[in-house]
Amino acid sequence: MDDGTNRLGWMLDDALRMPETRYAILLSADGLLMAHSERIGRDEAERQAAGMSGLQSLARSTAEFCGDAGTMWRQTVSEFDDGYVFLVAAGPGAYLAVSATQHVDMETVSFRLQELVQRLGKELTSPPRPGADSRA
């Protein structure tokens, strides 16, 4: 992916209009960067995508601790001295990660991320338009 193919980046930028948010990335289950917000460079976004892939994999492996090994993973929130990382399922094989400061309203971020996931889901599952040139 290069910045010219970051076609969903605008949706991530829109999500960052919430106060105290920093960065957003969309990644595949295998850790490939699918899109990134404008505030984060592509190289850093790719590095973070690889890490987030591992994080969601670890979280999913602990499902049995929640009561049933088959239960679906939905979200992981990691807390640090300087803020939070929200990692949510964004569709089949896709995950959305958002970084925020320690002053963020966590409930608002979680709600907005679920709204964004609904919008992204439509984009990720929409078939290409007939006659659309994929090289454009």
TrEMBL record:
Superkingdom of the source species: Bacteria
Transmembrane segments: none
InterPro entries, A to Z: Mycobact_SerProt_Inhib_Rv3364c (IPR053141), Roadblock/LAMTOR2_dom (IPR004942)
Record domain Roadblock/LAMTOR2: where: 9-100
SMART domains noted in UniProt: Robl_LC7
Name of one Pfam family that matches: Robl_LC7
Gene3D superfamilies: Dynein light chain 2a, cytoplasmic
Protein name, UniProt field: Roadblock/LC7 domain-containing protein
Species per Swiss-Prot/TrEMBL record: Actinomadura physcomitrii
